[in-house]
Amino acid sequence: MPGCLVWGEQRTKECSNWRDDGHEECTEWRDDGHSECQSWDKNCCDWWPCSWGCKLITWFCTASVWISSWVCIAAVWVSSWVCTAWAVVTTAICLMWDVVVTIINAVVVTIESILGWVWSAIAAIIAVILSIPILGAFIRWIISLATAIVWTIASIADTIAGLLGIRPEKLLRVCPVILADERSRPVDTIDHAVDQLQAAAHLLKREANIRLVPSAPLQYVTGFSGTPIVTKDWITVLDREPGDSDTLDPPCDANAFGADLGVAGSKFNLLMTVHCFYGGWRRLLGYGAPVSVFFVRSVKPSKDGCGTWIVDFVTVAAQPMPTSQDLRRVACHEIGHTGNLWHLGATDNADNLMATPRPMVTDVMNYRLYDWQVLLLRASKHVSYF
Ligand SMILES: [Zn+2]
Q: Which of 31, 61, 99, 380 would you label with 154, given CA atoms 20 to 30 Å apart?
């Protein structure tokens, strides 16, 4: 079912729940008022004209309770009707936008599948130059910052639509790569990589109506299909290319920035240029820039993974710490970092995807995103319609 419809259905349900709750509150309020009037009446004096005056007040009390309870019910009905009508209208706009995007996307994907190779070849030459440690890294960061600002500003209209409840499907391209150790043995299994990405595909689609797609040619997609199924052919396994500790055990703390400035940053940049060649031109311009997901041996100091806003890749540790928890959130959490999201304290946000330290969640599908996180993520340069 298209994301627009699922969301519209949810909100229509919320409207009717709200109506039912409101209706119940009005009735309760009426009953309370009614019994108050009755108890007043019970304590009435029995001598005239006191009894007459007292009865008059009882009558007035009962009448006003009835009238105001009807006003209450009418207000609840009207507002729930407006709520439902709004949900229907925004869902219709959302679906129409999905239709338009599907058509334009078919054209864009076709053109990109033919010409994207040439554009990416040009981008690759620039990327190699930018792989020079320190100076190249500084220029990479400036380009990354500039494109992030430009594309976030460009998506303001979309963010406003999102605030109003119109959130058509957007795309997030990924390029997953399993690195190999010093003796050319892959450091992780394809199954683990697929599991991680499938969890990300589920969560991003359900929470933010974002479709995870491999950064590859001929990826025709539409908002009218369900959650994408991640398959083994999404994943590149480097089994003939020995790695070294710079990329196999990268740091994720204050040292991460130092590492990106230095040789490790150059190496990751070259890995992306070679193994995520197809999305190269997008990486340079920032529009719909693919996120490269590197499955590495470990992330120092004993982390599950790492994602930094300023770079186009994330790392996921091959050997997650032994625990009874569902650890499939790592890739999605790190992708969240590249998509404008930061950590939230774990105490009050126990089921949030960005909560840290990682909460005790036994099923990855229980992770949620707040509304404001969804809007920030959808505004990211990595998330686009085309
Ligand atoms: Zn994190």
A: 99
CA of 252 to the centre of ligand 1 (A): 9
Cα 199 to middle of ligand 1, angstroms:
16
Is the C-alpha dihedral spanning 332, 334, 340, 342 positive or negative? positive
Question: pLDDT tens digits, residue range 86-123?
Answer: 999 999 999 999 999 999 999 999 999 999 999 999 99
Helices 263-275 & 50-129, crossing angle to 10 degrees? Answer: 90
Q: What is the whole-number distance in angstroms between the Cα of residue 339 and the centre of ligand 1? A: 12
Residue ending a domain, among 60, 89, 118, is: 89
**Separation of 319 CA from ligand 1 center, angstroms?**
17
What pTM value is reported for the model?
A: 0.90
Residue 232 C-alpha to ligand 1 middle, in angstroms? 26
| 85-94, 150-159, 314-323, 342-351: the lowest-pLDDT one | 314-323
Taking the centre of ligand 1 as the mean of its atom positions, its distance from the CA of residue 306, in whole angstroms, is 6
Q: Facing residues of 314 across strands?
A: 293, 307
Q: In angstroms, what is the span from residue 330 Cα to ligand 1's centroid?
A: 8
| SS3 (DSSP) at 109 | helix
Give the pair of three-digit tokens for residue 187: 């450091």
**255 Cα–ligand 1 center, Å:** 15
Q: Which CATH number belongs to the domain containing residue 369 in this structure?
A: 3.40.390.10
Handedness of CA 364, 214, 317, 146 (dihedral sign): negative
Rounded Cα–Cα distance for residues 317 and 248 (Å): 9
Cα(71)–Cα(240) distance, rounded to whole angstroms?
75
* Centroid of ligand 1 to alpha carbon of 326 (angstroms): 16
Q: Please state the domain count of the chain.
A: 2
Span from the CA of 253 to the centroid of ligand 1 (angstroms): 10
CA 304 – ligand 1 centroid, Å:
9
Whole-angstrom distance, CA of residue 203 vs CA of residue 38:
55
The answer to whether residue 177 is domain-embedded is: yes
Residues 53 and 153 in one domain: no
User: What pLDDT digit, counting tens, does each position of 22-60 carry?
Assistant: 999 999 999 999 999 999 888 888 888 888 888 899 999
Kindly state whether residue 94 falls inside one of the protein's structural domains.
no
